[in-house]
């Protein structure tokens, strides 16, 4: 039976292991210049793959998802081998990149990918890689260190162009040199040729060690139902977010976050560790929003960062993206549009392209541009949000049992309403705000958010005020303050409304009444009355 081969023509020894990755090619065999220069690298993708149109397009666009996919599927290289070749990367991270769950960011990582796969720097818009420059005396290909018997036989046969005693002596010396090199390589690798009895003893000990390795990998101090309990708790906390007072919920969630932190320090399996990291991240993401609702931006941003870091450690791109969604909103309410835009972009680098969260993050970026007075930036980012929404799959994903599509739809109405207010486009703001309010009111009970609905009323009130209708603006302002969940973001936007109304309609009795009500509401929330 012949040796099976991949579509690149490389015979395969085992899944993910190519023949030309397993063997070192003898100096007299033809080998392309790139492979010669990269003889010390564990992986060099074949020219047929490197020069393919698909690879060229992927490199030009820095589409690392496609680059990884091509290396994995067209060369048969396993994800573990790819990760080892790149360095400082796990096979699960490689899998996430291939599936589009995570991206490749940062020049240093891109350079490691280029060096790991053997992609010339100019194909990725990077400087020439060190291995692309031929070292002095580098014209000669490295000698093989594999298939010793075949090599010795070949060494003993002089070439037809070299005859006589001189040729024979040359090949005898060459064979001796090759044998010495092979013995030195074994010594460098820390190996030695042992007697059969010694080898048997080593194997017996190795079997016992393997059993111990397995026991250690499965060792855990977690109770069997701990992870199930945490999953239920996180689900219930998220369901209570819009229903319970934020102070009460913050204390309960923080208690669970501390407990998960303690579990992470204890004994658990690697799989359990990843799940605990994810639970820690989800709890911190919720704490970021609750701190924001309580008016503590510093604490909110700290927990958003903690959620992002734990999401990275868990290999959970969506968690990272949700964390940056929270960071973008908090920064916007703190009037830091540049930081909000950066957070939205970091989230987009982690979010799946066909997920409603991606729509929301594009809309966050649009809102940040509007807050900075960048009309063109707002238009471009909001168009990206609308285009992404059109390409969402028929079945929407769920987050802790709740459909997340409404969050994307809210972002396509509420966020542009706020943005158009900031850009002075009152007519468009009025249209978007009415659509946002209708969307909130029509949402299923599980997806209703009283605070978001109150903010939609304030946006509509501001549009009325800008269009010269203070009475309707005041009425909508009172409706917003009637909400069951007047958190800090609602009070913040209500302050924008009363400030604008007081400045434009000075002395208007109804405006003054709304302003005084907001002052009383804020003092009550602060415990001052």
TrEMBL record:
<feature type="region of interest" description="Disordered">
    <location>
        <begin position="124"/>
        <end position="167"/>
    </location>
</feature>
<feature type="compositionally biased region" description="Polar residues">
    <location>
        <begin position="154"/>
        <end position="163"/>
    </location>
</feature>
<protein>
    <recommendedName>
        <fullName>Transcriptional regulator</fullName>
    </recommendedName>
</protein>
<dbReference type="InterPro" id="IPR011990">
    <property type="entry name" value="TPR-like_helical_dom_sf"/>
</dbReference>
